[in-house]
């Protein structure tokens, strides 16, 4: 047995030590990584090691120096962005995959669960028979969907754009509140970032249907080819849900690919009180959702769903490589059939997106749904939506708080107000920075109709109403302190 083999033989004991370190971390009793007095940087900043120290000492350094100085994102009081710490079953499933199935391909249980979990996810989120593929996040998920849209639009005019490139000006229509990865997708796909037409929104942050119709009519007169319409099923900024049905009917009328970005908000359909807002989902040609957001997976898991994955294969297929195709004996070409996991690649996800090498992501989604079921996910979504509503109602009733936008999902936008202060934006900016530095309750900020807002977003499995109550107490306390200081 080699030295490396000997040092990794006792994986159970090593993982147990790491698990103990993570359990301590999850008590959230440690200061922030950049808190004054922390010395981990000097301990870790060493020259390139010529000789190794062994896995036991590396494990010790992980536990003592690295884990306690990790991110503030998993803390229950963190509500800044649409990201969260992974639930425990996500960590268990991804660890299992890292060891037992380094790639998502071949005839393994992991490959089987990749597809089964996509089917479960589609059913749970109300998108029916659409077929999916996992990727690293909403950025790539949107890129894959719009790659399908590009292929579809150009095939309608007899041009294989994936093979021969873009040969005319096209347009993607997306609201002012669309995620900026839509623009980046335009650049990557070769149609240009300026091909994305920004459509005005109403005061609730929803795309204005009339403005969309006008934009399409204008481009048709200018002989600009409409390629896709992108609607939000829960915008990143405020959680707004566009009028999905009306937009879908416009897309169908003009034969335009209809893409719905539900990276954050699609699981909101589980809350029956607002599920009617998702009417029109059935008209979509593509939909995305990120399990690493509201569903609790570790970061790096998104899903793109389309009506027919063949369009993705034509958009993203690789040219054959002898060392790949020549190394397997596909089932339909073999008299003996598949008798070994290496006889067949399984479902060719590598031709449905931009990744060849890819971890097993479906195992994580499978494990999360298997653990708590649809009802558990529904309870979490409703709890988070209730928290946002609680903050909204409290803000409407308190004289020193102002609700800036009624919440649709689990985001609430409000601010501190005081008659003695003229510049409320600056007051709330200062309040926000002081709040974050206290390292307990950490929302982000945004602007609502020109006003700076505090913007807590509740998606984490550890988010409970008591954190919202404590956030409001902290906002009122710090706001009062700042008014006294500035008066």
Give a summary of the structure in a few sentences.
The chain has 487 residues and is an alpha/beta fold.
Explain this structure to me?
With 487 residues, the chain is α/β, with parallel strands linked by helices. The chain folds into three domains: 68 residues; 278 residues, 3-Layer(aba) Sandwich (Aspartate Aminotransferase, domain 2); 113 residues, Aspartate Aminotransferase, domain 1. It is 42% helix and 12% strand. It is built from 16 helices and twelve strands. The strands form three sheets. The protein has a seven-stranded mixed β-sheet with strand order 2-8-7-6-5-3-4, sandwiched between helices. α15 crosses α16. The longest helix has 36 residues. The chain is globular, with a radius of gyration of 25 Å. The N and C termini lie far apart (73 Å).
Tally of helical runs: 16
Q: Give the termini distance in whole angstroms.
A: 73 Å
Q: What name does the CATH topology of the largest domain carry? A: Aspartate Aminotransferase, domain 2
Instruction: Quote the beta fraction.
Output: 5-15%
Number of domains: 3
What is the residue-averaged pLDDT?
93
CATH superfamily of the largest domain: Type I PLP-dependent aspartate aminotransferase-like (Major domain)
Which value, in Å, is the CA radius of gyration?
A: 25 Å
Which CATH-level-2 architecture of the largest domain? 3-Layer(aba) Sandwich
The helix content, as a percent range, equals 40-55%
